[in-house]
Design goal:
Blueprint: E1 2-7, E2 10-14, E3 19-22, E4 38-42, H1 57-60, E5 64-69, H2 74-84, E6 90-93, E7 98-101, E8 109-110, E9 128-133, E10 141-146, E11 149-153, H3 167-188, E12 193-199, H4 210-218, E13 221-227, H5 234-242, E14 259-261
Parallel strand pairs: 3-4, 4-5, 5-6, 11-12, 12-13
Antiparallel strand pairs: 1-2, 1-14, 2-3, 7-8, 7-9, 9-10, 10-11
Helix pairs in contact: 3-4
């Protein structure tokens, strides 16, 4: 499994049988195999997480499935499909959605046994499983199971603690964030994430990585990638200086195109 940082909060994850593309709105994508399914997920409507330009990918990669948070404009999607002259495969997602997708399915199934034995009847060797959790901003966050790996893309789920906000507002934000983390932890039931993509926003000042710390104190992850950094990539280095205990699992990103192989970490 290869993880490539595209731009801002966008990551491409290359799995054995498919690609996962999160929150793409601009940036250069590597060449993909047009014969493999591409599952394109947009966590919410903000311009730095979603743009109708993403639908252009279907011209080059015909096996695109778009999983869109239901706060995104339906009219915008309809207009894009009309302009392209394509029947776009759209799946609308909201908090609590549980989906099972196979490359040959025209519609998803609802899925309950997210962590079932992959060798059993409800296994996921030939499918991806998606569960949508809430956000402390708009839209959703995504927990995905693919290649028998667990991937979490937070979207704008974060402890947005602003220095110029009322203390009561920041305390309410933190409570909401920890509530959602509790739901994720309960779903994982002791399992660790293989991949975590999480906001680490320098605009927050002293709280730039507060949400990341709160997450990792509650949920273990093998490989952690910061995002939503507005090209101020030095925040990753500051995090490791302050918290060297996360060396080895935290991967500071230096710019677009950074990639990491989960199976061959030295590559």
């Amino acid at each position: 499994m290869k993880i490539t940082f595209i731009y801002h909060s966008s990551f491409l994850i290359e799995c054995t049988g498919c690609y996962l593309l999160f929150d793409y709105y601009q940036g250069e994508l590597p060449e993909l195999d047009p014969g493999k399914p591409v599952y394109i997920m947009a966590s919410h409507q903000h311009y730095d997480h979603f743009s109708s330009v993403v639908f252009q990918l279907v011209k080059k990669y015909p096996k695109c499935t778009f999983l869109l948070s239901d706060d995104i404009s339906k009219q915008l999607v309809q207009d894009a499909a009309k302009e392209l002259g394509e029947d776009l495969r759209i799946i609308w997602v909201r908090e609590g959605s549980r989906l099972s997708l196979r490359p040959d399915q025209s519609t998803p199934e609802e899925y309950h046994g997210f962590l079932s034995d992959p060798t059993g009847e409800t296994g996921c060797k030939d499918r991806i499983l998606i569960q949508a959790f809430g956000s402390t901003d708009l839209g959703v966050s995504f927990l995905v199971r693919a290649d028998d790996r667990l991937i979490f893309h937070a979207g704008d789920l974060n402890d947005w603690c602003w220095t110029n906000e009322w203390r009561s507002r920041n305390e309410a934000m933190q409570r909401d964030y920890l509530r959602i983390l509790g739901m994720i932890k309960e779903q994982l039931n002791g399992k660790e994430l293989d991949v975590l993509c999480i906001p680490m926003d320098p605009v927050l000042g002293v709280a730039e990585y507060q949400g990341t710390l709160e997450f990792l104190e509650r949920i273990r992850a093998r490989a952690v990638f910061p995002m939503h950094m507005w090209e101020r990539y030095s925040v990753g280095g500051r995090f490791l200086l302050a918290h060297p205990e996360y060396r080895g699992i935290f991967h500071p990103i230096s710019g677009s195109g950074y990639s990491f192989s989960l199976d061959n970490p030295d590559i």
